[in-house]
């Protein structure tokens, strides 16, 4: 993702303060008993990122209100509240060979699943993952989809004898497409816009299934898409296959999104449809922005992004951005507060040089001298750091991650509130499962804890014990295959 730096590039160890000014500066700094350097920047950051209960409640209530507005009409709120056209979830009776194609970021996955019906369920699976060359993220739609279809064709060629296709049937695909799409049917949808750093020309405004079908035809690949789904919808379907109490699914990885099971009779924009059934709503909650506690670093990062003013919730809570926010804070602390001894390493000015996995590793460091933190700072930024500086870096990391996890928890409560209000109290009074997927949630224990803490604080212990947040690893891949089977053209 191309993001402009917020300050000019400095020499590797260029002095930024005269000795006199540095003495004045250092007189403004204090040291906690823990050894952390406390500066006005850190104090302001912690104040701006604070998420006490009233802030969380405001965010949750705003999420609920924006969901309602988005269900009234398209454009009614920041939340698109997209109809998925998934009106029936997998039952366990699905059988046969199905494929899934999962495009959600810098990789795409292809999955092969043999389903055995109620008795055997998932008989066997195979998958492959292919990295998308970065240049294809900025090229044409035809080039991107040709690359994807080529990978799918190579995978299909390796189909072994343990997978069997029923006579007279064509290989069907569940296509997980994790970008904002205006769904027009279960197997068609118009791309609204690219996110997650993609800027492929020729796709927005067109049906992504048609783009894939045309590419498969060019590859001579005899397959058909029977279900187009978002990764959150697929995650919900995959988790619901094993647990009937799953009602919400959330992705917290490079990007973020959420979906939930909604009653069709409370969706005004279904244009008079009076069915009493259920459907899945893809909220596209990454675009939420109401009442979020933002800092100057968030605003600068947003302004320098390829989509300024958009996806504010995603830029505050998801894995693509947490490391970058931390980097921007450290850069200012190095320039203004002499965090690294009054010198600013050049690489500290490189956008996205610090990734969220690096932030996670620094927070896991339990060594007495925070050696892991020191190594990461040296390896990425070529900076030597004192123990006090390392403790300050960890505190910055914790401040940004705590805000992100707690805001994600408030978003989940906002969805549950909406469901509770329209179900006459049937959500909070029973076991309700939120299926979670994504590397940020899976691999970052502090983030998970902050998220769960926020849910418990908002709902109270009596209600929150009924809300089960359950990790659903790889749920989107299996879920897409299951939805392909349950929406098969040959069923």
Q: Can you describe what's shown?
A:
The chain contains 17 helices and 17 strands. With 491 residues, it is an alpha/beta fold. The protein folds into two domains: 1-84 and 243-474, Hexokinase, domain 1 (3-Layer(aba) Sandwich); 85-229, ATPase, nucleotide binding domain (Nucleotidyltransferase, domain 5, 2-Layer Sandwich), CATH 3.30.420. 48% of the residues are buried. The model is unreliable at 1-31 (pLDDT under 50).
Strand order of the largest sheet: 4-14-13-12-16-17
In the predicted model, the low-confidence regions spanning at least 5 consecutive residues are 1-31
Give the overall form.
Answer: globular
How far apart are the termini?
43 Å
Q: Estimate what percentage of residues fall within beta strands.
A: 15-25%
Q: Can you name the CATH architecture of the largest domain?
A: 3-Layer(aba) Sandwich
Structural class: alpha/beta
Q: How many strands in all?
A: 17
Computed over alpha carbons, the radius of gyration is 24 Å
CATH fold label of the largest domain: Hexokinase, domain 1
For the record, the CATH class of the largest domain is: Alpha Beta
- State mean pLDDT (0 to 100 scale): 87
Q: The biggest beta sheet, please?
A: 6 strands, mixed
Tally of DSSP helical segments = 17
The helical percent reads 40-55%
């Amino acid at each position: 993702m191309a993001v402009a730096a917020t300050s000019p590039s400095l020499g590797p160890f260029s002095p930024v303060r005269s000795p006199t000014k540095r003495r004045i500066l250092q007189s403004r700094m204090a040291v906690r008993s823990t050894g952390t350097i406390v500066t006005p920047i850190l104090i302001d950051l912690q104040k701006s990122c604070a998420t006490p209960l009233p802030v969380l409640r405001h965010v949750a209530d705003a999420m609920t209100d924006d969901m309602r507005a988005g269900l009234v009409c398209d454009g009614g709120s920041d939340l698109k509240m997209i109809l998925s056209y998934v009106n029936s979830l997998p039952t366990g009776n699905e059988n046969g060979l199905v494929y899934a194609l999962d495009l959600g970021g810098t990789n795409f996955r292809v999955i092969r699943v043999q389903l055995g019906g109620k008795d055997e369920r998932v008989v066997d699976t195979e998958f492959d993952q292919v990295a998308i060359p970065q240049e294809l993220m900025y090229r044409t739609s035809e080039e991107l989809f040709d690359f994807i279809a080529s990978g799918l064709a190579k995978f299909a060629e390796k189909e072994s004898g343990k997978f069997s296709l029923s006579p007279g049937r064509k290989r069907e695909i569940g296509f997980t497409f994790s970008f904002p799409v205006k769904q027009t049917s279960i197997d068609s949808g118009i791309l609204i816009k690219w996110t997650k750093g993609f800027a492929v020309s020729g796709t927005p405004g067109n049906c992504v299934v048609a783009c894939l079908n045309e590419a498969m035809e060019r590859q001579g690949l005899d397959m058909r898409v029977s279900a187009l789904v978002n990764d959150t919808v697929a995650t919900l379907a995959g988790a619901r296959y094993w647990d009937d109490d799953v009602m919400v699914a959330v992705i917290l990885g490079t990007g973020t999104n959420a979906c939930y099971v909604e009653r069709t009779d409370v969706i005004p924009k279904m244009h008079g449809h009076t069915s009493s059934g259920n459907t899945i709503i893809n909220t596209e909650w990454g675009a939420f922005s109401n009442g979020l506690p933002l800092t100057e670093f968030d605003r600068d990062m947003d302004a320098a992004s390829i989509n300024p003013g958009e996806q504010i919730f995603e830029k505050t809570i998801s894995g693509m951005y947490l490391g970058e926010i931390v980097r921007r804070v450290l850069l200012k602390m190095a320039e203004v507060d002499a965090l690294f001894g009054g010198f600013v390493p050049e690489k500290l000015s490189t956008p996205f040089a610090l990734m969220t996995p690096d932030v996670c590793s620094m927070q896991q460091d339990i060594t007495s001298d925070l050696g892991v933190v020191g190594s990461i700072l040296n390896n990425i930024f070529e900076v030597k750091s004192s123990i006090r500086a390392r403790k300050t870096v960890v505190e910055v990391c914790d401040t940004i991650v705590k805000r992100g996890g707690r805001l994600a928890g408030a978003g989940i409560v906002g969805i549950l509130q909406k469901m509770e209000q329209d179900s006459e109290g049937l959500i909070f009074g029973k076991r309700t499962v939120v299926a979670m997927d994504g590397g940020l949630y899976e691999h970052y224990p502090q983030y998970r804890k902050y998220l769960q803490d926020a849910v418990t604080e908002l709902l109270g212990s009596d209600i929150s014990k009924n809300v089960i947040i359950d990790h659903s690893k790889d749920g989107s891949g299996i879920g897409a295959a299951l939805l392909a089977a349950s929406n098969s053209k040959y069923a």
